[in-house]
Amino acid sequence: MGDAFIRHIELLGYEKRFFPSQHYVYMFLVKWNDLSEKLVYRRFTEIYEFHKALKEMFPIESGDINMEKRIIPHLPAPKWFDGQRSTQNRQDTLAEYCYTLVNLPPKISRCLHVVNFFKVRPDDTNPVTDSQIKKPEVFLLPQDAKKNSTDITGPIVLQTYRAIADYEKNSRSEMALNAGDMVDVVEKSETGWWFCQLKNKRGWVPAAYLEPMDGPDESEEQEPNYAGEQYVVQKSYTAVEDDELTLKEGDTIEVIHKLLDGWWVIRKDETTGYYPSMYLQKAGEENTSVKSQLRNRSAPPRRSTVRNAKSIHKQGRKQISQETYRRNSKKYLQSRRNMKEKFQNMANAIFEKNEQEENKPKAQPAVPPRPSKDLILNRCTESTRRKIL
After folding, report:
1. What's the pTM value of the predicted model, to 2 decimals?
2. Range of the domain at 197
3. Closest CA to 136 of 47, 10, 19
4. Do you know which InterPro entries this protein is assigned to (predicted)?
5. Whether the predicted pLDDT of 309 surpasses 70
């Protein structure tokens, strides 16, 4: 028999695991050319890295040279934090991606990169577990509803967080917390307000008062982007803390760092500070009724203002000072300014050199010296000599 290749890949669902930390893996049934069927588990980050490498291997088929010739399917990048909802909603896209992948020309669908990625690994047959942590939870894609990935069999188990301090609600839509309460997060909003449930109670809770059970949640936060991302202020806010900014509706700013508590580090001209993300909208993005309703809410508390926090992970949290944001941002601005001046100086130097060469007078041929009388008499003919003498 020839080289192994994949006949079909079927997405069965996903699994929620709790070791070494809470994460999600997708379950694939891979059918090979020798009629064998193997079950493999892959994280979405792994699948996306596989996808990027495949595009680099086949630049024509990926559309990097000409988009009209693209046949490799698209795959969205991972979100800055992946919860159960995004894992669940992505299933339809993944199922279509695998179907298209297997039906690509053999040079792609049967290449070693594809074959090796879907081969069975040791942790596929014997996943690493801890007897002290609860067993993985499986969510299968219904056989009669493969086009509707939102219909998942089994219970919808939400991510559990712990309250690090007491919180008194300020409106009917919020939920009060006591330090140590275990809540299930139904929805994570980048505004810093998370919709949670505790027994028979449900409501909005500030993300600053919650921490995951398996460790600090810095991994869910993006790294600072000192180049900045342009946003427009949709609601005015007056600074309360020294490191916050006061802005008016309509101001254009640059977002440097998106933090989970809903307070983003922004830059206005050369001034940096914190501002509620719920009052910002990405430049060029259309407004929606949901966003308008959120802006009517008050800004959530910041992590730095949570008093008497009983966090079990506070020692593991990394902190970036406001001065670091400001210094790095100024450094970025200065480097950009220096680069612009450098190119401008180079352009001016080239222009001046060309101009000088054009205006420089052209060299004239040298006039030869007049020969002396003795030299003429010595070299001339006898006839010429008689005429001179």
Report:
1. 0.49
2. 162-212
3. 19
4. NADPH_Oxidase/PX-Domain, NCF1_C, NCF1_PBR/AIR, NCF1_SH3_1, NCF1_SH3_2, P47PHOX, PX_dom, PX_dom_sf
5. no
